[in-house]
Amino acid sequence: MYKFLLFLIFMISLGTMVVWGTHSYFFANQQPLISYGEKINDDDFKDRVVVLLEESVVGSIDDSIYLINVVKAYQDKKISKIVVSGQKKNSGENRVLAIMDYFIARGVLEADLYPDFYSADPYHTCRRLHEVFSISKVLFVTDHFRAQQALFACQYLGKIDVKAWAWPADKNLGSFFDTFTSELGVLADVHLSAPEVYLEDRPVNIFAKLYPY
């Protein structure tokens, strides 16, 4: 029993070192990442398309701090275009469309909203933002860990001038494990697999003027 406990402690310690070391080495120092607690200046919004990661919005859409703050920034005319990035699912609620409905109900014009249904993770999102939507300047709105992953992927691809506006992530053990597995997925996408990305819907000009208004 004593030996087993020592072995268990050793394995837990080793696993914690691997997880924290991987996170710290690749993701922890991603810049520019603006914390929700910091003052965000108009220059941080200037000429940037806000990209909301659908995976960040868990639980009730109506209570999401991300959506509330994006709507406020839109109403204050700090931003003019919003892309909701996620993955279309064959069953259950389509969260991308549900989030877009939330924005429209609060005064965001349909012409200023664009869905991205084919981005399962930050690597797909970054490539599609560049190759499908032809966007060069982005402000991600998401939780802290997903912001770090998006910055890492976009900066590696080198196609987009990217910032992130991030809120604290859930600190429970399940979320920590999910974060680590998603970080491994981003690392694999960037350094190993370079997965195939859906580009059949390109190009989309989100800055085109639509008539009639």
Rounded Rg: 19 Å
Number of H- or I-type helical stretches: 7
Secondary-structure arrangement, i.e. CATH architecture: 3-Layer(aba) Sandwich
Secondary-structure element string: HEHEHEHEHEHEH
Sheet with most strands: 6 strands, parallel
What is the average of the pLDDT values? 83
Helix content: 40-55%
Q: Kindly give the count of domains.
A: 1
| Low-confidence runs | none
According to CATH, the homologous superfamily is HUPs
Tell me what portion of residues adopts beta-strand conformation.
Answer: 5-15%
Instruction: Please give the order of strands in the largest beta sheet.
Output: 1-6-5-2-3-4
Secondary structural class: alpha/beta
Shape: globular
**Per CATH, what is the topology?**
Rossmann fold
The strand count comes to 6
Q: Tell me, what is the CATH class?
A: Alpha Beta
Q: How far do the termini sit from each other?
A: 74 Å
